Please model this.
Amino acid sequence: MKKIAIACDHGGYPLKLAVLRHLEKQGYEYEDFGCDSTDSVDYPDYGVPACEAVVSGRCERAILICGTGVGMSMCANKVHGIRAACCSDTFSARMTRLHNDANVLCFGARVVGEGLALDMVDLFLQTEFLGGYHCGRIEKMMKIEK
Model:
């Protein structure tokens, strides 16, 4: 797998550090788009560049973390070519890859704990898209951008 893009806002910063340590242990290469502290910032300033790295092909997938995951996912889905899913359970993190070919996982540091977040990261990165009849649905969804 190519690099994983990762970004957060101030609410997600402590959990991002745990995810980075986990990615390193798993042998994933990543590019960290910030932020780098718990000082208040605006999530689009960090989420958008991470998504642009996915769209350009520099990174294969992205993980975005904010307080709830909702703001990052809304922002990410404004970037042409991104299919971001805000997840708070392992079933959704797995199924969004299997059926939706999501390329961005978003979650909230105030919603999920570290253990659940790391489990979702593993499922998101290890699960491949099923393809088949799901491809037509993805094509229809991506046409909406046009």
Remarks:
- The chain has a mean pLDDT of 96.
- The chain has six helices and five strands.
- The two ends are 29 Å apart (CA to CA).
- Residues 13-26 form the longest helix (14 residues).
